[in-house]
């Protein structure tokens, strides 16, 4: 028969307790005394052991729950088994833990599901930010370009056996016979052959990965928009745009359209300037035809002008500036009057909006600086870039500027004849080597191709004219005669039947693209295709060909400065 062990250790000891001074007490008093002497430590130890056991159980359950999440068990079933609080806690850790080997797509899937059903997580900015960061994580290593460390778009294999993106190894990725950037493999240092071979299976995997990630990003952005988290929605949308790079045109436009429709679902009064900017950005990106693009431009201008003017009416300078910047960012080629890169956009200038746009900007300038006048930099630059009809509208809207605007128009009229006087023998048509820099090889000199009348010496001079209506810089031959006199001249050297004549000048080219210069000459392409060389005053015009070293492509301002310096309108021409 075992004896009770007052230590409570449960160690199986059968030793009786030592004799105590209470031995002479009655049985009831002895029991009471012994109970008071028994320490409470065993009870605490039992409780601690229970807590440790519970902690171990919870830790193991969390690991099990993590494994089930990774396996793809529906959250509703896990709620039933473990409880919503545990699923939310472990799911949050599942998303935020970037443990190697855990699929990014699965983390996104779990994160979106948790976000959709948990108000607590919707308010957790850190969790939302972590979800967006998951979107930006790198793809699997086998889809990455080992040189550039980014996903491949057109994977090829080189003769050393390594797979890289075509853009990393070929000088011209669009040319299937392009030269390679290096002669030895950068990984093994062995010589490589000049031929690369496409890996279509990996290319398809890369495309599938990007499209899958775009779908996740769109779904995540939709969740943020639904919960009113505009900042996180913007981050998701920006991630979509980055993923769209190098996608085929159909996928690009289809996705851009989907994103713009997504943003349009947000009530207009709740759209921030930044969100509206992204809406119009994707509207522009999703167009297929000039007609669709024109509609997109009209939507942009209507939206921005109405909101910008509303902000000006409220004297809210900061908001108005933000709205107008949206247009300046999305339509720089139209607003700055420079020839656009795309002929498609060149056909869609902004004549119907130019007046409203200019008037609204003038109002903004006056709001920013009540002392502004026609000579202020922003105002003067805006007036220089617009036509006379709009300038007169500005005068009507700003009667205190009437005298200054009248002086401005007189100045423009005096400058509109010609900017420079270039002798006829200083300009020649050439055959050349695109792009014309860093070396220009100019051969087969002849008369300027667009001047079809083949002028004789003394029949005027060449100049350039900045056409305010079209926004183009024109190349002209100034003869200072009326159109009737020009067309009735007996010599066909004056003009051909289909020449364009305006204000005593023959329009040789309606547009000029500055191509090459080295300071001794200036070259341009007339109407995008006719190579024309303007020789400096000291250059030999009789050689018939020349090679120019150290050339570069000039800006419009650089070209105009060169013309004024060498053939300014005040200079005499022979």
By DSSP (H or I, 4+ residues per run), the number of helices equals 22
**Poorly predicted regions:** 1-17, 336-349, 570-574
DSSP strand count: 13
Radius of gyration, Cα only, in angstroms?
39 Å
- Average pLDDT confidence is 76
Distance between the termini: 136 Å
Short description:
The protein is of the alpha+beta class. Helices cover 49% and strands 11% of the residues.
Question: Which labels suit this protein?
Answer:
574 residues; alpha+beta; 22 helices; flat; disordered N terminus; disordered C terminus
Structure write-up:
By secondary structure, the chain is of the alpha+beta class. It is 49% helix and 11% strand. The protein is built from 22 helices and 13 strands. The strands form 3 sheets. A 6-stranded antiparallel β-sheet has the order 10-11-12-4-5-13, covered by helices on one side. A 4-stranded antiparallel β-sheet has the order 6-7-9-8, with no helix packed on it. Helix 5 packs antiparallel against helix 7, helix 7 runs antiparallel to helix 9 and helix 11 packs antiparallel against helix 12. The longest helix is centred in the first third of the chain and has 31 residues. The N terminus and C terminus are likely disordered.
